[in-house]
């Protein structure tokens, strides 16, 4: 994979064809959030959206863990990297963008999450901002903020009850307890459980499946969900039609039908 210059001391950003792999890389601190990490994440999401040939991203953590949330001991400590300090000044709300908080922070392409070890507090908040979630069998999730008299500022108090049943969401948010991978699967919070050490491999397989689909179709499906959230059905269908009809008439759609008839893999160009 190609290491991209967007990488920072705590965030490794690599590209392999249509897929960008983003690795939170601070294993000595269980990948706790830092300025270096959040700036790298914010730049990674912007790159994934802006690059036409990138179709999907994968988010994971180094050293057998995902992310243990904010570093309470070093909260607010500035980066020692001049480029990171400059980018933090240039990116409005870089911390929220890094955490995938808000519609403007979400990439226009899907993000697959690969979780090993701890994905707690800000780690779970990041997971809630992704589109598909693969977790290792011994992974630990949870939003611990209430136990520390804090608040989940990454948006989970809003997002979680919209993604999983209310009672499950309140269990996670109000008790602040640790959640096992199996519980997360039963709640509908994650997609799959895989053996320890296999989360990234499984996430990459899923990312490759997405990358093989028509990119215009994939992006349109994501956009439709996000833009119609909370709308009445008739209003949402009108938005869906506006987004969907151009995809139906695209060159990629013609290629998909032709490839099906010719019994060969489709070659999509995002056109």
TrEMBL record:
Organism, scientific name: Planotetraspora thailandica
InterPro entries registered for this protein in UniProt: ClpP/crotonase-like_dom_sf, Enoyl-CoA_hydra/iso, Enoyl-CoA_hydra_C
Homology family: Belongs to the enoyl-CoA hydratase/isomerase family.
SUPFAM superfamilies named in the record: ClpP/crotonase
Pfam families: ECH_1
Protein name: Enoyl-CoA hydratase
PANTHER family per UniProt: ENOYL-COA HYDRATASE, IP11341P-RELATED
Domain of life of the source: Bacteria
GO molecular function: catalytic activity
